[in-house]
Amino acid sequence: MEQVAAGTISEPLDLVKLSLGERVFIKLRGDRTLTGNLHAYDAHMNLVLSQVEENIHIVDVGEDGTAAPPRIERRGFEMLFIRGDSVILVSPLLE
Amino acid sequence: MLFFSFFKTLTDQVITVELKNDLCITGTLKSVDQFLNIRLDGITVEDPERHPHMMAVKNCFIRGSVVRYVRMGARSVDTTLLEDATRRGEFMVRVLKGLRVD
Amino acid sequence: MEALIPFTTSGSLVDLVDKKVLVILRDGRKIIGVFRSYDQFANFLMESVVERLYHKMEYADRDIGILLVRGENVVAVGEIDLIAEDLIPLREISVENIMTRITEDNTKRDKDQIIKENVLREYGFVSEGREGDAY
Question: If interface means Cβ-Cβ distance under 8 Å, which residues of chain A face chain B?
């Protein structure tokens, strides 16, 4: 098993290859995270995901300059292309 | 090239392009090039009050590098085909680099 | 070759030639003028150009003349519908007045931005600076 794993993962993007068709967690620039089913990627980390849930972390600043912990704004998309230059990390999601 | 081909299959479909400045433009995809620059026709903007400059704009060219997301209907995409093409693309890169092919 | 034209940069910019266009730049500036010529990098030349400053539903124009834009700095180029343009409920005010309003908003936003970044850093999100730095 360990040998198989060592043989399959020889470069970073191989981890992404193993996640094709599976649910993944993505962290993006702009205080965003996504989960969705991965259907495509390339060397730039451009991605296509389906059944996507996006979480945007928003901080509201009051008139007095104080800020509460971030609130999360959720959006859902049935099919989404994500440009690779916004991607910080891609991680397999264990269900 | 995978995503260039992917967007070519979406031509004449209605898509929403979300830019990194949060502007969301919906329109019919008219063309795409190898940089993933996008040409949209018959556009509408989400939250036009926040983007008054877009009110009189009917079609537009969007530079690929400023795109965050492109949203589309699930029915316009064959996910099995996409996954196969992604694996094949990986295969071709390895062949070209002279790497071991699993 | 002809079949490829819709899939090149020139294929998508060609119908904008000699049209009145709005250009959005990476720093958020909006430029209006007549689109005259371009190349494969989406560098282009415009004539009768103004920079249009917006604040809510008010605007002001600043004359520029002829402008060469480096493609790298472009977010989007849109053709302006000359009929729809006249129907838009925007009010023109002086450049000085609009600048005062824009500066006020920016000062408040910049101050809030620092507070927001400090909170988000604790949650593992790095700051990206102002509009334009995100690209």
Answer: 7-8, 10, 13, 17, 20-21, 28, 30, 37, 39-43, 46, 48, 50, 77-83, 85-86
